[in-house]
Amino acid sequence: MEWSRAHHAVEHEDLPALRDLLDDGHDVQDSDMHGWSLLHHAIDVEIDGHQQTGEPLHVDVTAYLLTRGADPLAPSRRHGTPLQMAENRGHWLATELIQTWLARGSKPK
User: Fold this and answer.
1) Are 44 and 7 in contact (CB under 8 A)?
2) Residue 45 falls inside a structural domain
3) Which sequence ranges form a coiled-coil region, renumbered to this chain (predicted)?
4) For the chain, percent helix, then strand, then coil, each to nearest 5?
5) Burial (0-12, 13-18, 19+ Cβ within 10 Å), 24
6) Is residue 43 part of a domain?
7) Where in the chain does DSSP place strands (E)?
């Protein structure tokens, strides 16, 4: 796979590495070869982790990316927006977080 370093950080839920990359100027709207943004990728990783391990669903990376300006309404080529992806794949926690984020008037940077 040809992922950026930021996508690798998201894949491994490595928030310190992701923070450093974004602080150094990596684009929070970065998309991979399939058109997934970092936020799409985070939602996918959080769902997969929950399904594969049975551990509670969480939104650590999703929440961090939102605070850094990721756009929850930016569509990918095939998977809709991150909000739609969370809704369609049953990531209720990300869905609630994004809807609350948007209701408060938070805007992507």
Assistant:
1) no
2) yes
3) none
4) 55, 0, 45
5) exposed
6) yes
7) none
